[in-house]
Each structure stands twice: as C-alpha cells, then as structure tokens.
Amino acid sequence: MSARMGYSSRLKALLQQGRLDEARLMIRGMAPEVLEEELLRLPPRSALALCSILKPPRLAVLIEGLSRREKQKLLSSASIPELRGLFLSLPERLLPELLNALPSRQKHPLLEKLPKNLQKLLQPKKEWPEDSVGYIMSGNGVVLSPRDTVAEALDKIRRDAPGKDLVYHCFVIDGERFAGTAALEDLVLAVPEVKVAQLTEEDCHAVPPEMDRAEAARVMSRYDVQVLPVVKDGRLLGALPFDDVLDVMEDENTELFHHAGGLYGDNDEGSLWGEALRRFPCLLLCLVTGILTTGIMENYEEMLSQVLALSFFVPLLIDTGGNVGAQISVLIIRSMGLGRLENNVLGRVLLRELLTALLLGGAMALLAAGRSLFIGAGGQVTFVVAMAMVCVVVASDLLGALMPFVVKRLGFDPALISGPLLATIVDVLGLALYFAVASAVLP
Predict the structure, then answer these.
(1) Do 387 and 321 share a domain, yes or no?
(2) CA dist list (Å): 317 to 303, 326, 396
(3) CATH number of the domain within which 39 lies
(4) Which top-rank group of organisms is this from (predicted)?
(5) 182 and 34 share a domain?
(6) Does 283 share its domain with 408?
C-alpha cells in the first residue's frame, strides 16, 4: 500500500513540475482501471496534465469511465484552450455528454473555438430560449413504471444508474404520462413486494421547459429539492439537477456583481479590446455626469462666489444621496431575485421607504447641521444644508426603490440600474436639489 502511495505521489510531482515525458513513461502499460484510480487521486490541474499526455484511444476509455461529477471535477479548472485540446482528442460520441458536464460560462466560449463540424454537432437545439429551463435540462435519469415492484425497481436502478446523477430521484412514467418521482431512499427502505405507485410523489414541483432558469433555481431553493422534472403536456422532457442549478445561480450572481461594478456585456476572454468595451460605457456615463454636475455648479457660480461655504457641503450631500440610493436598490433587487416582491407591491414599498427616508434624512440633517455650525458657516447656510440633506435622502431613497420596478416592467434586468448608473442619476439629482433649496432660502 505504501509503495502504491509513493508511486502516486511521484506521478503527481512529475505532473506538477511539468516533467511530462517522465510521467508518460511511468503510466506506460498501466491498466485502465488503475489509470482511472490515479486520475481520481490527482487535483484537477494535475489530472488535466495527465489527460494531455495520453493517446486519444486511451484517453477516450478513461473519460468514458468517469461519472458526470468526476468529469465536472476534472474540467473545473480547465481554460478554454485546454478544453479545446481535450475535445479535439476525443471521439465525437463522447463530446455531448462532456459538454453537458461544463458550466454554462464555459460552454459558449468553448463552442466558439471548436471547428464548424463540432459546433454543428454540439450546438444545442434552438427549441427553447437560452435563459429557459429547456435549454439547460439534462436527459439522463432512471425511469420506472408505477406497476414495478420495489425489487424490480432496484434491479432497474442497478442496471441503468451507473454514470447517472439523477439516481436519487427516479422518474415514474405511466405509459407516456409523467406520474411523479420516487425517492431512492424510499425504495431502499420499502418491502420488496411493494409497488412503485405507492411510493410515487406526485407533487414533485415539476417545471415547464419555458420557465426562466433563474425562476427554476428559486423553486429548487424554496422547496429544498435535489432535482426538478421538466414536464410539458404531461410528458417528461428531462430534468434539472442540483449541480446545474448551482451553475445558474453562479451565473446570475456573476452578472449581478458585474452590473454593480458597471461592467456590461459578455467578457471577451483574452481580448484587451473586448475588456475595454465592457468598461467604457460606465466610464462614459461618469464623464457625462461630471459634465452635468459642473454645468449645474456653473449655473450657480454667482451664489457660490457670495456664499463660499455652500461648496464645502457638495461632496457630503451627493455622497450621502448615492449611498442611500445604492442601499435601497440592492435590497429591492435582492428581494426581487428571491421572488419576494412583485409589481403590485410598489405603492406599499414606496410608502415604507418614504417614512424610512424621513427618519434617515432627519438624522443626517442634524449631523450635517452640527458640522456646519462647527465650521461657523452661519445660520442660513446651516438651514440650507439641513433641508437639502432631508430632500436628497428622501429623493434618493424613493428613486432607488422605484427604479428596479420600472426597469423590470420594461422587460430588463433590474440589476442594470444598480451601481454606477443609479449613483450617476442620484448625483445629478442631489446637486440640483441642493442648489434649488439654496436659491429658495438665501437672498
């Protein structure tokens, strides 16, 4: 046993050090089952290196013997060029299943790098939109009949389950009609003579293929299930397993963070031009904001020259307004993402935020007024700063709460207005309100 572990450690060290010729000599003549054991012991990067030194026939046998989860672990750290080399080394019959093991963030860039004949073979059918459940559903699973006994069902599972990740919930089909799911744990614990129909759960939260994949992820999270059957007109089309839903949630969170940082569009991996194009719109928006704010200040140049203390509080007011708007927009967008808010609650949300904003605005106004008195800005300027602070906080809070509903009603992702875009609007609004209050109060 110790000799075997020493052999594995030696192979791992050679692969990590890039000494591939020596590693190739070590595995020459190794039995397929032993090679598979060695592969599963290696970390993903070393496992990829091992695959790169195998001849195509031997690599095909190795990949074919891996389960879906093992394939996902192997491919988890692979770059697009590495994936392309792997796909070009394997026979075409293995490629669809291998592609299905990839998260969606890797599938599309990989397809673009493959030859046209492989793209045609692997390109998903356009029957369902890319953001739908039907586009990402899996087809592998164990199918049982309600008339099967538990003993017969377990025999089917033993025969059909290897390599299938949906074994924990078997699909019960009565003729062509989808009847429900049967949990593996129920089958294992049941008496062998019991019929599968008695263990079938009809309320298994089946979803239609047209459903948005993010909504399906929320369904799975809400009901804490491991697989969602995809059913249309009473027929089972496929299933959405938990690991695919994790990919969906990761994609959604990545998109949200990108929007919050002002990054729009797809990432063109390895392209400086593509990365610059993603970042330029947000920077252009900030430039436009700067032009608008300087224009507003230029319009009130005479007032600023007479009451210089007003300029001291410009950063304080617009920063406060930006932070308030960002806070409430994140809360609203997060609640929408979890399915807790619908369009018909807009009035209740705005009323609640109005009261909250008045409390926050009053507290911030007292602090800003204290700062104004401390630097000796005078009673009139202090009153202007306090009133403007209340107005800016209320306006920013209501705008930050309203915008996600408006954007969603227009058919866009509410996350688009988070981050720099909302902050830009709030900055201009806050500055305009500040000088409007100053114009009304000061002589």
Answers:
(1) yes
(2) 17, 14, 11
(3) 1.25.60.10
(4) Bacteria
(5) no
(6) yes
Closest CA to 183 of 162, 163, 203: 203
Long-range CB contact pairs, 107-110, < 8 A, 24+: 109/80, 109/269, 110/80, 110/83, 110/84
Q: What is the mean pLDDT of each run of 10 residues along the chain (443 residues)?
A: 62 83 83 82 85 84 79 80 86 79 74 81 68 76 88 85 67 88 90 92 87 82 83 86 69 61 54 70 73 77 74 85 85 75 77 92 92 85 90 91 83 67 80 86 76
Q: How far apart are CA 405 and CA 413, in angstroms?
A: 10
Domain assignment present for 407: yes
Structural domain count of the chain = 3
CA distance 122 to 108: 10
Residue found by looking up tokens 């309320």 in the block: 203
Say if residues 69 and 43 touch (Cβ distance below 8 Å). no
Residue pair 94/60 in contact by the 8 Å Cβ criterion: yes
The residue type found at 80 is: I
- Structure-token pair, residue 239: 């299933």
Torsion sign, CA atoms 206, 188, 158, 98: positive
- Residue range(s) defining the domain that contains residue 219: 143-241
Q: Which residues contact 127 (CB under 8 A, 6 or more apart)?
A: 134
Direct distance between the N- and C-terminal alpha carbons of the chain, in angstroms, rounded to an integer: 92
Listed residues 221, 241, 261: the one ending a domain: 241
